[in-house]
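Q: I'm writing up a methods section and want to include an example of the input and output format. Could you take the sequence below and give the corresponding predicted structure tokens, formatted cleanly so I can copy it straight into the document?
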Amino acid sequence: MTREDEIRKEREKKLKELKAQSVEPYKHKYEFKDYASQILKKYSKLKPSRKTKDKVSIAGRVLATRIHGKINFAHLQDSSGKIQLCIEESTSGKKLCDFFKKYIDSGDIIGCEGTIFKTTRGEITVLVKKLELLTKSLVPLPEKWHGLADKEERYRKRYLDLMMNPKVRETFIIRTKTIQAIREFLVKNGFTEVETPILQPIYGGTNARPFETHLAALKMKLYLRISNELYLKRLLIGGYDKIFEFSPDFRNEGIDKLHNPEFLQVETMWAYANYRDNIKFCEKLFAFISKAVLGTTKIIYQGKKLDLGSWQKLSFLEALKKYTGENFDTENENHARKLAFKLKVDVSDSENYGEILNKVFEEKVEPQLIQPTIIYDYPASISGLAKLKPEDKRFTERFEPFIMGWELGNSYSEENDPQKIRAYWKKAEEAFKKGKTEAQRLDLDFIKSLEYGMPPASGLGIGLDRLIMLLTDSPSIRDVIFFPFMKPEK
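A: Here is the clean output for your methods example:
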């Protein structure tokens, strides 16, 4: 029998004894009015060894107990923080003191009432007068959780990670504040929040391999959305001007420090605007988020100083030339291939000029985009839903923001010509039939909606998980998702 098995057996025995005494170890409810953080702040200037008559009532989980006979201590953690409790026989009463020593363990959830004092060592403490067991914990809290080497265990048991590691809790508080800040900024700028389908009969809006599912009631195949873009555009056609959605999306692709099969984006759609408008809007949005959440635009990520209020802007061709030293501004596809070969980039599977440039960009340019950078005017062949640049149809009115070598978003002037969209999707269908699983699909219903007329528009999508990684100095996307995808334990 392991030590944990022994502890569980002891606690099950206590559970049985409590029930025999008609003490319910799993309460229905508990009324409390104070939080640990509020108490600590309010009494921070109380002098050591001073007692008050101020009454408080709190509830939370017991992290640890220290039994010293007639004077006993515990640390209680609630959703706001941690505070010390004191249970002493002379003031709490012998009955309560004996109950605490015999039946309260680390991990138990309790409610208590008492008065405030500060110990000689300066720790604000609740002198407990009443105590109620609310939930009995049957297994002990982990002894060695801080700095746990096995991150898989941390992600798999996030409830313990939140319980034992205050920094993890802070990360998710920042996540919540980030979403709130984005919503505040968009609403202030006249955008309306909407909701679109997660289950879709035809997936679309980007290039990605979807997850498939089945609707039993109608005996039909459905897909989890890879993007909400096409439904937002349907709403523009219906008469909305400025809309946004926090969109959980699902892509059946790889898992690494920047990718999780399920992730969160915020996507906007702005009628009568173009990508140039969204470049300015994107810069303002990032600065607003950083100031609202952290109080500054200047942050440090993994030792790198970054300023989310200052953006370098380069065209796709300018970035290639700056970071590779080669000029890819050519009409000759073979010349572009030769330049890629010179840079030791394998473009053998690249079918056209745009794909060649993109492959070189991904390998040679992206890793160098550490400081906030906006790359604009992307090749047409890799930007099928974007409008072509009138002055150079090799490229489109599209941009992406980059930080730390990561793509954090995507935006373009939306193509609203139904004939051009149909032609693009027909080519994509041919690629799909040849085995390109991430190719876009022909959506006749969307084309029909475009035939009624969609105003000129530009959308902006931002990957929130990566943004939150930056704001929390987190090395992996798994650190900022409560429950990242994990392979089931055997």
